[in-house]
Amino acid sequence: MEPVLLVGLGGALGSVLRFECSKLQPVRGIPAGTALVNILGSSACSLLIFLPAAGDLSLFLGIGLLGGFTTFSTFCFETFRMLEDRDYYTGITNILINIAGSLAGVGLGYLLIQGMV
Questions:
Q1: N-to-C CA span, the chain
Q2: What is the pLDDT of residues 91-113, one digit of tens each?
Q3: Contact 40/105 with Cβ under 8 angstroms?
Q4: How many CB atoms lie within 10 A of CB 114?
Q5: 29: exposed, middle or buried (C-beta count within 10 Å: 0-12, 13-18, 19+)?
Q6: Residue 108 in contact with residue 40, Cβ under 8 Å?
Q7: Cβ neighbours around 20 below 10 Å, total
Q8: Distance CA 79, CA 93 (A)
Q9: How far apart are CA 70 and CA 40, in angstroms?
Q10: What pLDDT score does 53 carry?
Q11: What 3-state DSSP class applies to 23?
């Protein structure tokens, strides 16, 4: 299959999954869906990086699905709005949850792969 089709199909699927996750209700003002997709996406990306998928699978999963699924731009926009509204506590908490959670997801993926080798 053509690489552009693999990336497009993966991106479409990832975007639909992200859309469904975005329906989660905020938890104490934190957009739960955005945090979830960023943390899950980082974990999945870590698995692909540390246990590389070959060729077509990498295009479909890595660039396509995870590219459409994760949502750094949404995270930035939501955090900006919190700070603009002077809700500094929630904004900073949102930053910490997304960044620390995503880094922990990468670490978890790494540890899982190391245990499999």
A1: 30
A2: 999 999 999 999 999 999 999 98
A3: yes
A4: 10
A5: middle
A6: no
A7: 11
A8: 9
A9: 8
A10: 67
A11: coil
How far apart, in Å, are the Cα atoms of 94 and each of 29, 37, 65, 91?
A: 9, 13, 24, 5
Question: What is the residue type of 26?
Answer: P
The Cα–Cα gap between 56 and 33 comes to 28
Largest Cα–Cα separation, the chain: 49
Residues 6+ apart with CB under 8 A from 41: 66, 69, 70, 71, 102, 105
Q: In this predicted model, what pLDDT tens digit does every residue of 33-91 receive, in sequence order?
A: 999 999 999 998 888 888 776 778 888 998 899 999 998 888 999 999 999 999 999 99
Reported as half-sphere exposure (CB side, CA atoms, 13 A), residue 86 has a value of: 0
Q: Which two tokens stand for residue 117?
A: 């080798």
pLDDT at residue 115, rounded to an integer: 86
Q: What is the rounded CA–CA span in Å between residue 59 and residue 48? A: 11
> Phi then psi for 8, rounded to 5 degrees?
-65, -45
